Amino acid sequence: MDENKNLEEFSQEAAKLLKQGKPLTGDNGIFTPLIKKVLEAALEGELDAHLEQTRSKEKNRRNGRTAKNLKSSLGAFEIFSPRDRSGSFDPQIIGKRQTMLPGDLDDKILGLYGLGMSYSDIQSHLSEMYGVSVSDGVINSITDRVIPEIRQWQSRPLERLYAIVWMDAIHFKVREDGVVLTKAVYTVLGLNLRGQKEILGLYLGHTESASFWLQVLTDVKQRGVEDILIASIDNLKGFAEAIENIFPETEVQLCVVHQIRNSLKYIPWKHYREFIKDLKQVYRASSLELAEYNLTVLEEKWGKQYNVVIESWRSNWSRLSQYFKYPEPIRKIVYTTNTVEGYHRMVRKVTKSKGAFTSDMAMLKLVYLATIQFNKKWQNNIPGWPTIINQLFIYFENRIIKSDTVY
User: What are the tens digits of pLDDT across the range 203-257?
Assistant: First the structure.
């Protein structure tokens, strides 16, 4: 009865403090005294049990209390941990050198792992900062807890329409049956109608192929995507056809930067600067008509020497030149797959310390945790989005319906 009364009094006092703007947690938080009482009572109980075992043979007894600052997701606060005279008391709830609440250890380990830190680095950091010792098995067990979360994330429903989707693959080394293999992680990065970037999916395959991209796109559609306005991709054979098979109205823009890189592989150094100067007149033209005229000039000058290069531009021109129809703000973000490549560069920073992953799941865990961190940074819409969305409305007004959420 007294406990119920105390709880009711605490609730009333907490409500009053909340109205006054007091924080729930932290040094002066509303719940901090309650947390302190629970922890200190638990420690006192542990010491009582310990003294029962040691008093008769060691004549052990209490020896005051020691102040300890604890860090947690609820904020930092001070507790008083009891001591015994013999110094044999080793509390389990909050260890002697521990400065972090046990329940927060999981999040701390996942955060460090998501930054690409190795198991040994994580162990050193936790020991130095919080006085906590953890084994490889504990770290592995904690990081394994995100596996169901990964499965759920991979199958989550997606939005009906995405303005732009960039697609590309990133490759990692993975050990399998004692052999190190190179595997591809297929990345689908979308831009929604609020101007926010979002990783729609990560898919693991052995090598990059159009047939696997067809499976990826089928999954994306099954998860709710009905339409993609513009897809920006590299020139993997059959990739564009795979997109058009699943999303027939999508405009496919081949990455111009990839096309330039592939072209320059065939140009010797003696002609390199002159050729690229002429090529810039094509892809930097102000209009489609001027670009096509400059492509003809390029062909007349270099066609006999570098026919393979010119033929590649000609055969891919319809998909390379899609961006010319749009104003500059849209052109800048669709003519290249640099957006998804930028994401891959961020992933590489996290995974660069890994020579070869021990398994597919070890790789996916790290890439997923890194991706969740990046998604937090992408909550704001991209620069110039109000202008871009208004321009997209003009070009795709029949495909952007009222039910789609836009700014």
Answer: 998 888 999 999 999 999 999 999 999 999 999 999 999 999 999 999 999 999 9
What is the token pair recorded at 269?
Answer: 């150094």
Q: CB within 8 A of 317, min separation 6: which ones?
A: 292, 295
Q: What is the average pLDDT across 167-191? A: 92
How far is Cα 237 from Cα 218, in angstroms, rounded to an integer?
Answer: 18
What pairing do the DSSP bridges indicate for beta strands 179-191 and 197-205?
antiparallel
pLDDT (0 to 100) of residue 5: 47
Helix (H, G, I), strand (E, B), or coil: what is residue 254?
strand
Enclosing H/E stretch for 203: strand 197-205
**299 vs 291: CA distance, rounded Å:** 12
The identity of residue 288, as a single letter, is L
Provide the residue ranges of all domains of the chain, joining segments of one domain with +: 2-99, 103-145, 158-251+344-401, 256-336
- The structure's pTM equals 0.71
The reported pLDDT for the residue numbered 303 is: 93
Sign of CA dihedral 258, 196, 187, 246: negative
Q: How far apart are CA 22 and CA 28, in angstroms?
A: 8
Rounded average pLDDT over 13-17? 62
Burial class (CB in 10 A: 0-12, 13-18, 19+), 282: buried
Domain 158-251+344-401, classified CATH 3.40.50, yes or no: no
In what side-by-side order are the strands of the sheet with 179-191? 197-205, 179-191, 161-176, 227-233, 251-254
Q: Which two tokens stand for residue 123?
A: 């162990």
Q: Please provide the average confidence, as pLDDT, over all residues in the chain.
A: 83
- Residue 77: CB atoms within 10 Å: 22
Task: Give the C-alpha separation, 383 to 195, whole Å.
Answer: 9
Residues contacting residue 53 through CB under 8 Å, at least 6 positions apart: none
- In this structure, what token pair is assigned to residue 383? 């620069």
pLDDT digits (tens, 9 = 90+) for 108-137: 666 666 666 666 767 776 666 555 566 777
Measured between alpha carbons, how far is 250 from 313 in angstroms, rounded to an integer? Answer: 21
Q: What is the pLDDT of residue 168?
A: 95
Residue among 162, 177, 181, 239 nearest 208 (CA): 239
Q: Which residues contact 44 (CB under 8 A, 6 or more apart)?
A: 82
From the CB of residue 212, how many other CB atoms can be counted at a distance below 10 Å?
Answer: 18
CA 275 to CA 86: how far, in whole Å? 84
Sign of CA dihedral 143, 146, 148, 154: negative
